Each structure stands twice: as structure tokens, then as C-alpha cells.
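Just scan this pair:

***
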Amino acid sequence: QLHRRGFRCLHGVDGSEGMLERARSTGLYQELRRCVLGREPLPAPAEHYDAVTLVGALGEGQVPSTVLPELLRVTKPGGFLCLTTRSNPSNLRYKAELEEALGRLERSGAWQKLLAQEVEHWERATSEEESTQGTGYISGVVYIYQKCPVPPLEEG
């Protein structure tokens, strides 16, 4: 979808060589690198990207919420970050921790929240216990933040 909307310079990272091979086979990415998010720094210089997305990886047992400062590091001032997490019962503790970390960064002036939108039918549930009100789906949240510009130094 991003490619169809004009985004042509796409870089990707994943901790799995198999997933990187799948991404390579699409022909959509200019650069793909192996990186275990939350354990290794992203293979990019500071303030390099106009937009950073992390979709489907912020969840219990996956990428820790401690990755947020690293995502901010590689985003240009004024750039955008799009993040997602699930709202299913087994991810609620992680979601609460993530939202606390998101809020801390916003209160510190690192970024500004533009959107936090619940999506009712995020993905198919793998069990009835995970299903939102018996729909067969779990819900999720899309967060969009804008990195705050660095304030100019005061002279004097």
C-alpha cells in the first residue's frame, strides 16, 4: 500500500532472515537489514528517516517497548512514527506498559501524539479466549506520533 501511494524509498529490518528473504522477494525495498529490535541499535544514522513504522511487532514476547527511543533516534525532527499493538487479553499488560512509555516520551517533549485509534477487527483471533466479544477477531490500536523539532539554542 505504501508503494502504491508513492513511497518508493523503503528500508526494512527484521530479526528473522526468513522474513527478510520474503521481503526481498517483493522487490519493494531498497535496503533490508537484520536487526533484533530492542536488543541492537537500528542500522541507520540519527535523524535519517522521514517516517518510521513498526507494525505487528509491539506485543507480548516480541519487541519490548524500550525500543521507542531508538525509533525516535532514527526519525528526522518533524518526522512521523506509526506504531501498532494488539488489544487482545494476552497483550493487555504489554499494551499498558507501551502506553505508559508512549506517554512519558510525549510528556518529555520528544514527540506529539497525532492519533491513537482502536481498530475493532485488527486480525483473526487464534482462540475464542482472544476473540473480541466472540467476533473471531482481536482488536488493535494504531498510534501516530510526530517527532518534535529540536528547539533552537537560546543565545546569551
